[in-house]
Automatic annotation (TrEMBL):
A GO molecular-function annotation: endopeptidase activity
Family statement drawn from the similarity comment of this UniProt entry: Belongs to the peptidase S41A family.
Keywords for the protein's UniProt record, in alphabetical order: Hydrolase, Protease, Serine protease
Organism for this UniProt entry: Chitinophaga terrae (ex Kim and Jung 2007)
InterPro entries for the chain: ClpP/crotonase-like_dom_sf, PDZ, PDZ_sf, Peptidase_S41A, Tail-specific_protease
PANTHER family xref list: CARBOXY-TERMINAL PROCESSING PROTEASE CTPA, TAIL-SPECIFIC PROTEASE
BP-aspect Gene Ontology terms: proteolysis; signal transduction
Protein name listed in UniProt: Carboxyl-terminal processing protease
Domain of life: Bacteria
């Protein structure tokens, strides 16, 4: 009986389902009528996507739509703040390597002169040293690609030499007029962010941080332990020309310098709730005299560290006003392999001040700010510093400080404009110092074996008149103007820089900074301040 009832009602059930299906189909998007959508909302493409689609399908000529989209994105971002940027797929790998603190390659530093790729230095313990590559080798071929005399660029040679760790790259090099084939097994190559750590005086440690990457804190702690073992009681941290990086890295470094439960920085934005970053653990250097070196190239995470130290009256800021970047970016990966780095919040240092300089007049005006500081006289005269924020803030000790345009130093050190005469500017621009140092080192390799470390080199090596004459002859081939009428100041600058570049050739950035800092007025002032117990900001 129940089966007969089901047979009677089954056609009726099918009819109801069919009618309902026709009704829904009639009301769905694309049905060709003006009925109200029942369950689905038609996604809106927006006018920007509509325009791109029309250009792709209707435009009279064939276009590179990828390039067009990139320009459209960059045009859109140009209406926002200067730090919201689009990173192309090609750029993303390099950016990621810089921030991760490593890349996969063979571990050599090179330069290119006269279409020749010269190995300037070989990473100690790296793949190239293991394979037998030496400083002074000239790379002729990479696998089957000729790179000598082939208008090779630095970017092209990097692409050829880098690759997955464990893979083999076959290089052909010229060494003392002999051609040698060297297979190199690629590895993970560190990109250090602590460029130097040494004792600048018997009790004063010096640490140079070039950026804040994923490995900075570990590098910093390693340097601190080494310096502490050498008797460090005072510390100088050099943040000049440090563009910033990871917020977390700067916070962790600050945590080692400030005692517990102190606010280091906080962030907040329209859709970004306030987040406080405070000290969490006992620091390695909470009590000793401290100086932070800054200049107009110190930005972002550098300013967080310097600002926290200044606001808590923990140490002295020495140098010039910092860049003034107080915006927080988050990075979002895109389907095309690129990324969008978008500003989502502002950061505020402990006194409550934002140090972001104004950007309302457009990107060009913002990017020209450093040149405007030079023209205005700020880089040579503290009284010329423009304070954009008229709201006064106070440090923990009651000193008045200002925001709205960077961290203003406690002790001002002017930029030495007299260093950059036309002759010296040409020498720097053409990398004459670096090219000469490489050539001189390779020709006098045995002489330099007497110096076991950077300290011994700083103490024992002095540029001779013969070295100066060799350099001037070399520079003349570079068509450097004014070499026959150098001032005494120019000659001294050349001697100091030559010694530093040779130290770099021998001991990399550690040697360079330990040498160049001997005559650096900012470092000299920092030594004076940290060793003078009565000196206060």
């Amino acid at each position: 009986m129940s089966n007969r009832k089901l047979n009677v009602f089954l056609p009726l059930l099918f009819a109801v389902v069919l009618a309902l299906g026709m009704f829904l189909g009639h009301k769905m998007p694309g049905s060709g009528n003006n009925g109200t959508t029942v369950f689905f909302t038609k996604p809106s493409r927006g006018p920007l996507q509509e325009v791109m689609d029309l250009i792709k399908t209707k435009y009279v000529d064939t276009l590179n739509t990828d390039k067009l989209q990139q320009e459209a994105i960059e045009g859109l971002l140009s209406k926002l703040d200067p730090h919201s940027i689009y990173i192309t797929p090609e750029e993303l790998q390099r950016v990621t390597e810089d921030m991760d603190g490593n890349f996969e390659g063979i571990g050599v530093e090179f330069n290119i002169t006269n279409d020749t790729v010269n190995v300037v230095s070989v990473l100690s313990g790296g793949p190239s040293e293991t394979a037998g590559v030496q400083t002074g080798d000239k790379i002729l071929k990479v696998n089957d690609t000729l790179v000598a005399g082939n208008s090779i660029t630095a970017e092209k040679i990097r692409r050829l030499l880098r690759g997955p760790a464990g893979s083999i790259v076959n290089t052909q090099v010229l060494r003392q007029q002999k051609t040698i084939t060297i297979p190199i097994k690629r590895g993970v190559i560190p990109l250090y962010s602590v460029d130097a750590a040494y004792m600048a005086a018997p009790t004063v440690g010096y640490i140079k941080i070039s950026r804040f990457s994923a490995t900075t804190y570990d590098e910093f702690m390693k340097a601190m332990r080494q310096l502490t073992q050498q008797g460090m009681k005072e510390l100088i941290i050099d943040l000049r020309q440090n563009p910033g990086g990871y917020l977390d890295a700067a916070v962790r470094v600050a945590d080692e310098l400030l005692d517990e439960n102190k606010l280091i920085v906080y962030t907040k934005g329209k859709d970004f709730p306030r987040a406080d970053y405070k000290t969490k653990r006992p620091g390695l250097f909470e009590k000793g005299a401290l100086a932070i070196l800054t200049d107009e190239g110190s930005a972002s995470a550098s300013e967080i560290l310097a600002g926290a130290i200044q606001d808590w009256d923990r140490g002295a800021i020495i140098g010039r006003r910092t860049f003034g970047k107080g915006l927080v970016q988050e990075q979002y990966d895109l389907d095309n392999g690129g990324a969008l780095r978008l500003t989502v919040a502002r950061y505020y240092i402990p006194s409550g001040r934002s140090i972001q300089k104004p950007y309302g007049k457009g990107h060009d005006d913002y990017n020209d700010d450093i040149m405007e500081r030079l023209n205005h006289g700020e880089l040579v005269n503290k009284d010329s510093i423009k304070i954009n924020d008229t709201v006064p803030y106070k440090t923990a000790g009651g000193r008045r400080v200002y925001g709205g345009g960077g961290i203003t130093p406690d002790f001002f050190i002017p930029f030495d404009t007299a260093r950059f005469t036309p002759t010296l500017t040409a020498i720097y621009t053409r990398n004459t110092f670096g090219n000469f140092a490489y050539q001189y080192y390779t020709n006098h390799r045995e002489t330099f074996k007497a110096y076991k470390d950077a300290a011994a080199f700083v103490k024992g090596f002095q540029p001779t008149g013969e070295l100066m004459n060799e350099f001037l002859s070399f520079a003349k081939k570079d068509s450097i103007p004014g070499l026959d009428r150098l001032s005494a100041k120019d000659e001294n600058e050349i001697r100091v820089r030559l010694k530093a570049m040779l130290a770099r050739q021998l001991f990399r950035t550690e040697g360079f900074y330990e040498t160049i800092n001997q005559d650096d007025p900012m470092v000299k002032k920092a030594l004076e301040v940290v060793l003078d117990k009565s000196s206060t900001p």
